[in-house]
Write a structure and sequence with these properties.
Chain lengths: 361, 336
């Protein structure tokens, strides 16, 4: 008798303890519907984006194009590492004030026969971005798959987002592993471990590189939305790239020589004004932004990116900038790169949303 | 009568000054196969794109399964399958992989996607080609894969844009048979567009004739010819040995006869035999027996009575062959 009462009480107590918990689980189950349920109810399709990204990544990784681009980038990295190691001896001996940052020199020095790592990346990175993005939308259109995909319950922007995210993921992984590979090889060969600050600088350099390539990727996606022929969009992308890498500086030099105030009569203010105006113009180019950002990150001795008078430099302690200050110095450059990316994105969005998607036309 | 699943009211869409769709109104009921027939450039594809929210209408309203496709395209596209004109697949992927991608995009789990893809590939007769790359598929196989691709999301309506284009006649029959069977088995509503009147009307419950943005007529073939060919009454040709005024008057008084005239003799190829006259009798309804009786009763000899019927071919000639005018002119020039 006693036992049964006890049992009853125990059960009751157990129930009171359990019931809110059970309810909680039930409520949790009720409020968190599966993808399929959510999908069938709402005007959204969360699963589709993941599926698209996976599809894009697997397509890229399996493609010949990606392998070729990877091979080019890999070879140039090995080459630049080789030249850096050749000239490292001299660089360490030189007394330019930052012989502490030996590992960083792996990325920035060269013996003159080949460009340095950052030189190569700044030059070839855009090619990689353009190569991965130039036929993103128009090849699907020409193959007749675009209208089939768009007939599935997905938003149009999901497609663009997926293409961008997938390519950027690949680029991100590629550069992260390449950068760390160079770091590791340098570590093995030189025998000096990187300091924590060096590691931070290298990682942020890689992030800036990815942002920079992300801009070119986005620009080429924009061209792929605009032009029906992949060849046209690839050529437009390459044209923009060549313009900013080679011709923009030449044109600026021309303009500068035309606008320069007479050095005999001009005041310091005039000169400073002229220089900062030209600097502003050159900073329209993403290539300049990238170069400024990366050289500041990898060369701690870079103290300013603008003109500096002797007066201003007077009394400054001759020492490398701490990481935080370098980061602060390039913040506008990084913001500019991201803004350029967003502008391209916005234009391609608007264009793509307004386009009519027919069969292969 | 079944519920209306597609309701188009006064739909208008123009490209610049060209009106692609001009005040189109059309209702399609659940479970029927509707054929949107018309020559190339009639606005069929444009209408279909607007049904799926892939293109925005300039005016009018569309209602698909109770939803407005312009505002809520995702919900519409989830329940409506669409096979585009000249569908493409990822050519490096196998047919099965292509289907699975579509299934995954429709929120079907990996496992179910595989099962359903294999089942549908069998259904459309591609089970042997399931693991072949889609790039190696023939045109007919691509269309069948497209059909499986459309069906994988278990749609309520399927819209097929020119499904028969570029397939040989045997392939067309097979594909249409497949569509018909699937529609009947699963109670699917099918909207298909085509310019191949002859083949497509065989499986359609109703067809709509669509020419330069406007729906000229809808209904089954009988209604279509009645509506479209009202201005051309049936023509009965009678060959008699004499045609005097009395006979003509008698014939005129037969019920249903609208006009009687003696055929002019300028048709070289059909020059009537000496002392025989051909009468062309326009009638509203087929009344050949009465005409025969009248002729015989009048004492004239009746050699032949022929009824000229306007049907599919006449519709085809009038509305569809327009696009080929240029071609025929060119061939004539070549003949000269």
């Amino acid at each position: 008798m006693e036992a049964s009462v006890l049992k009853e009480q125990l059960n009751k107590a157990w129930d009171t303890v359990r019931s809110p918990f059970k309810d909680g689980i039930g409520r949790l189950r009720g409020t968190v519907p599966s993808d399929r349920e959510r999908f069938s109810r709402a005007n959204t399709n969360p699963a589709a984006f993941r599926v698209l990204v996976r599809k894009e990544i697997s397509d890229h990784v399996r493609s010949w194009r990606f392998l070729l681009l990877l091979a080019i980038i890999f070879l140039t990295c090995v080459a630049s590492l080789y030249t850096a190691l050749n000239s490292l001896q001299d660089a360490i001996k030189s007394t330019d004030g930052y012989s502490d940052f030996v590992i960083l020199k792996l990325f920035t020095t060269s013996d003159g026969t080949l460009p340095s790592f950052i030189g190569f990346i700044g030059f070839l990175g855009p090619l990689l971005g353009i190569g991965l993005g130039f036929d993103a939308v128009n090849s699907e259109r020409n193959k007749g798959t675009l209208s089939r995909i768009m007939a599935q319950p997905i938003h149009r922007d999901d497609l663009l987002n997926a293409k961008f995210i997938a390519s950027l993921t690949i680029i991100g992984f590629m550069f992260l592993s390449l950068g760390l590979l160079v770091l590791a090889l340098g570590f093995l060969i030189v025998g000096l471990p990187p300091s924590f600050e060096e590691l931070l600088r290298i990682l942020s350099f890689l992030v800036v590189t990815i942002v920079y390539i992300g801009f070119w990727l986005n620009l080429s996606i924009l061209f792929s939305v605009k032009f029906r022929q992949p060849a046209t969009s690839a050529l437009s992308g390459i044209a923009v790239w060549l313009f900013f890498s080679f011709f923009y500086d030449m044109i600026l030099n021309l303009i500068s020589s035309g606008l320069a105030p007479n050095s005999d009569t001009a005041s310091v203010d005039d000169m400073v004004h002229h220089v900062s105006f030209m600097l502003g113009l050159s900073r329209i180019s993403p290539y300049t932004l990238f170069n400024e950002a990366t050289s500041t990150l990898l060369m701690p001795t870079v103290r300013t990116l603008g003109p500096l008078t002797t007066e201003q430099a007077y009394g400054a302690i001759d020492s490398p900038l701490p990481f935080g200050q370098s980061l602060l110095l390039i913040w506008p450059q990084v913001t500019g790169l991201i803004a350029l990316t967003l502008v391209c994105f916005a234009i391609s969005y608007v264009m793509f949303l307004r386009q009519e998607i027919r069969g292969r036309s | 009568m079944a519920e209306t699943v597609i309701d188009i009211q006064q739909l208008t869409k123009s490209y610049g000054t060209h009106k692609a769709v001009d005040h189109l109104s059309l209702q399609i009921r659940r479970g029927e196969i509707f054929g949107l027939l018309g020559p190339n450039g009639a606005g069929k594809s444009t209408t279909i794109l607007m049904l799926l929210g892939l293109s925005e209408p300039d005016g009018g309203s569309i209602n698909v399964l109770g939803l407005d496709p312009t505002r809520r395209p995702i919900e519409v596209k989830r329940r409506v399958g669409y096979l585009p004109d000249d569908v493409g697949f990822y050519e490096d992927w196998t047919g099965l992989e292509n289907l699975k991608l579509t299934a995954r995009l429709n929120g079907i789990s990996d496992k179910e996607a595989e099962d359903r893809s294999l089942y549908l590939l069998k259904e459309v007769g591609l089970q042997d080609a399931a693991h072949k790359k889609a790039g190696n598929y023939s045109r007919g196989m691509r269309q069948r894969l497209g059909l499986a691709d459309v069906l994988i999301k278990r749609p309520e309506i399927i819209i097929l844009d020119e499904p028969t284009l570029g397939i040989d006649p045997k392939g067309i029959d097979e594909l249409l048979g497949l569509i018909h069977g699937l529609s009947r088995d699963q109670g699917l509503t099918v909207l298909l567009s085509s310019h191949q009147l002859h083949q497509v009307q065989q499986i359609c419950d109703r067809v709509g004739l669509f020419v330069s943005g406007r729906l000229l007529a809808e209904g089954n073939l009988e209604t279509l010819s009645r509506v479209l060919l009202t201005d051309t009454p049936l023509l009965i040709t009678a060959e008699v040995n004499r045609a005097d005024d009395e006979l003509l008057a008698d014939l005129q008084s037969v019920e249903g006869v609208s006009s009687v005239r003696i055929a002019s003799g300028d048709q070289d190829s059909m020059r009537p035999v000496e002392d025989r006259t051909r009468l062309e009798i326009g009638v509203n309804a087929d009344c050949s027996p009465e005409i025969a009786r009248t002729v015989v009763a009048s004492g004239a000899a009746l050699y032949g009575l022929q009824r000229k019927e306007y049907g599919l071919d006449e519709i085809y000639r009038r509305y569809f062959a327009g696009g080929e005018e240029l071609g025929s002119k060119r061939s004539k020039r070549a003949a000269k």
